[in-house]
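Please, structure for the following, as tokens.
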Amino acid sequence: MNERWTEDRIADQSGRTVLITGANSGLGLRSAAVLAAHGARVLLGCRSPERGAAALASVRTAASGAAPELVQLDLADLASVRTAVAKVRELTGDALDVLMNNAGVMATARGRTADGFELQFGTNHLGHAALTWLLMPALRGAPAARVVTLSSIAAVGAHLHLDDPNAEHRRYNASAAYGQAKLANQAFGIELDRRLRAEGSTVLSVLAHPGYSSTGLTSNMANSYQNAVVRNVLRETGKLGGMLFAQRVEHGALPQLYAATAPDAQGGDYLGPDRLFGMRGRPTKVRTLAAARNPQSGSGLWDLTAELTGITPDPS
């Protein structure tokens, strides 16, 4: 890998179709604009119709090829995931080149998804896992398709509570719940790679993380708390941390763009920034966490996810 890799090195993406979750802001919006500018047909998976429409208009101005399209998608609602999958399969004719599992919520106040799961685990992991499994026929329908799943440096030191993933029998901690969700993203991406390899599939499962990037997640986190004092403290802390350590979205999106487009990216690769303990820098291949690589944990998470979502895993 060239350590000075930038988006200028992305090859022409004409003829490729990409679905990006959380494409209305931050890393997702940046990735959508860059890929559209390189000729890809971009499907913007967005929860809010209004914010999605604004993002669509923005990406449309950057597009150099096929017009981008909006897909209504709420990862915190499995019924919405199923509806979105049906639309994507129809729009693509079952030929999807890249699924970028980018969306997420971070360290929010305790909440529940539409299906009753802890909000962060349910949105960041279960919603994306369901989306990935249900879209596998469309991914197999494209040559050398890729699933790009975003983890986070917040996964370091986190634990997968497979016996209590929704924190029903232990005290809820917002940061720990976020760490678990992002560790689950990493473990799922690795387990997906194992199973795709086992069946001889040409679909690649690649992982990425953005380091510490100014994405808007901090303000969304603060807004999830009803207590005004807590909200203000989180906002100010987030602003200070952003000024001291965060890199711009343009840089934060590079690892996932590399994972989605670079010819030398391989199944199981994990891309992240190369400096300041992974918080900033150019994309490079980094080591996945031992907790995420553990085959027993990966298999256990896979089976638990199938049980909770009621979706048959693909690959099996």
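The two ends are 32 Å apart (CA to CA). Residues 16 and 312 are 27 Å apart (CA to CA).
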